[in-house]
Design a protein that fits this description.
This protein is an alpha/beta fold and 314 residues long. The protein has helices at 8-24, 28-50, 54-61, 69-76, 118-124, 131-146, 164-168, 171-183, 199-203, 224-232, 238-245, 249-254, 273-291, 296-308, and strands at residues 78-83, 95-102, 105-112, 151-157, 189-198, 210-214, 218-220, 260-262. Strands 1, 2, 3, 4, 5, 6, 7 and 8 form an eight-stranded mixed β-sheet that branches. A hairpin with a 2-residue loop joins strand 2 (95-102) and strand 3. It starts with 7 loop residues before the first helix and ends in a 6-residue tail after the last helix.
Length: 314
């Protein structure tokens, strides 16, 4: 498993435990050594988590082994049917959109998708969507509204792609149109930040009655490196900028940016993707159960008031 620098002592200890297990073969002395190392690993993991700073938590949101949208899609939903293309320019692999079943109910699922290997990262454009990605998402969400299907979105992007081609094809207009479309959807909408929630690229899939956020996800108007480049002309000062951005889940909940924080397995979602999916699935079921009872007018009014109220000060 790939690991971050601060995880190295724990990863080395766990590697040693695996080696001993493979060689134990009923040896009581080795079994005792394994038990001692497991206790030490548990203590070390708690100590590491207790000492995590803002920058370390930002790194966890970007962890190379962190579950992506398709990982959750596979574990939480059934009968997934992906739709492609925006009917204007083409298909954008950085956004996955379609329909699936959650406990037998048909729902619309839309999310950013990153890649793990170099080839996958290039194919998914590192989770940075082009205009056609957001137009595809809008098309599928409007199709869901037509047939009364709840919409569940999953946010994991450093931001919308800022390249020349994307700008020429109307990146800002596509983001704005997606925000407007989500604001007007008559069906229940739940958005979840599962990794990075960066800038307008995240907000384009984030307008909902309920916004959830995983414990070690981040949500911000800009990446720490981008902020540092603007403020100090030095992207290497990203850790310093992260301190000021209030981009962690606890900050977002306190400021009313998100409604609920979904706890992750000890050490982060990458330590146990199956458990992370179970926790997120349970949270989605709870929220969807409540939202079903709202009338359309109440749903739209609350969604509007929720976002208009962000940033207000007495």
């Amino acid at each position: 498993m790939a690991h971050l620098d601060f995880e190295k002592p724990l990863v080395e200890l766990e590697s040693r435990i695996r080696e001993l297990r493979s060689a134990a073969d009923g040896d009581a002395a080795i079994d005792a050594q394994i038990a001692e190392l497991e206790a030490r690993a548990s203590t070390l993991q708690q100590d590491l988590l207790g000492d995590l700073g803002v920058w370390e938590k930002v790194q966890l949101s970007r962890h190379p082994e962190r579950p992506y949208f398709l990982d959750y899609l596979e574990r939480i939903f059934d009968d997934v049917l992906e739709l492609h293309g925006d009917r204007v320019f083409g298909d954008d692999p950085a956004v996955v959109a379609g329909f699936a079943r959650l406990d037998g109910e048909s729902v619309c699922v839309v999310g950013h998708q990153k890649g793990r290997t170099t080839k996958q990262k290039q194919h998914r454009n590192f989770g940075m969507a082009h205009p056609e990605g957001y137009r595809k998402a809008q098309r599928v969400m409007e199709l869901a509204a037509r047939y009364g299907r709840p919409v569940l979105t999953f946010i994991d992007t450093p931001g919308a792609y800022p390249g020349l081609g994307a700008e020429e094809r109307g990146q800002s207009e596509a983001i704005g149109a997606s925000i407007l479309a989500m604001a007007e959807l008559p069906v229940p909408v739940i958005a979840t930040v599962i990794g990075e929630g960066g800038s307008g690229g995240a907000l384009a899939l984030g307008v909902a009655e309920r916004v959830l956020m995983l414990q070690y996800a981040t949500y911000s108007v800009i990446t720490p490196e981008g902020c540092a480049s603007i403020l100090w002309r030095d992207g290497a000062r990203g850790p310093e900028a992260a301190q000021q951005l209030r981009l962690l889940a606890a900050d977002a909940e306190r400021l009313g940016i998100v409604d609920k924080v979904v706890s992750e397995p000890v050490g982060g979602a990458h330590r146990d993707p199956g458990d992370a999916a179970r926790r997120l699935g349970a949270a989605l079921r709870r929220e969807l159960g409540e939202l079903r009872s709202w009338s359309v007018s109440d749903r739209l009014d609350r969604r509007y008031a929720r976002f208009r109220g962000i940033g207000q000060h007495a």
